[in-house]
Design brief:
By secondary structure, this protein is α/β, with parallel strands linked by helices. 42% of the residues lie in helices and 18% in strands. Helix 7 links the parallel strand 6 and strand 7.
Length: 178
């Protein structure tokens, strides 16, 4: 199931933006309509995984999607790849949980702010940790992607990722290390 193509970011290790040229997304109404249609055809449907680069590339549409999922009361849980963004407040994550968010995958990549900057990530490790804690507190299960050995990562920056990893192990049992 796809809700978008491309990515709004330009991470230095990824070619998604080059491949898709620009970020495109479907409206919240169309996505919810499709989920309702699938649920009618397959009443046993309990979970939909969005196979997008990031499900929250357009926060306005993502917010409307959550509102519609709550309003329609479809009883289908969902998940997908999601970007760390300041808009993922405690309140918004709780809304996501009410809307059926059940399994997310965050591309955090590093616990070092220096390496995050080299990767052209648009957040700090502190913001990532805060969002991950709030995600757990909202009852949403999640996994985290990390990258080690990134060009420019020295021993000191690697140790910051190890410290970060030890913190997030308390929040999720699922960490993917590349």
């Amino acid at each position: 199931f796809s809700t978008s193509r491309g990515c709004i970011y330009d991470c230095s290790f990824c070619r998604e933006k080059e491949y898709w040229d620009k970020y495109r997304f479907r409206s919240a109404e169309l996505i919810v309509r499709d989920i309702i249609s699938f649920k009618e055809r397959f009443p046993m449907l309990k979970f939909v995984y969005f196979n997008d680069s990031l499900i929250n590339g357009n926060m306005g549409e993502f917010d409307r999607f959550c509102d519609l999922m709550i309003k329609e009361n479809i009883h289908v849980n969902w998940g997908g790849h999601i970007a760390i963004r300041k808009e993922l407040t405690k309140e918004f994550l709780f809304k996501m949980s009410q809307a059926g968010a059940q399994r997310l995958n965050f591309g955090v990549e590093s616990g070092s702010d220096i390496v995050l900057k080299l990767m052209r990530k648009n957040f700090t490790s502190n913001l990532a940790l805060e969002i991950l804690e709030n995600t757990r507190d909202s009852g949403i299960s999640f996994s985290v992607n990390l990258i080690t050995g990134f060009p420019g990562e020295n021993e000191e920056e690697f140790q910051k990722t190890v410290i970060f990893l030890n913190k997030i192990k308390q929040l999720t049992p699922c960490v993917h290390i590349n």
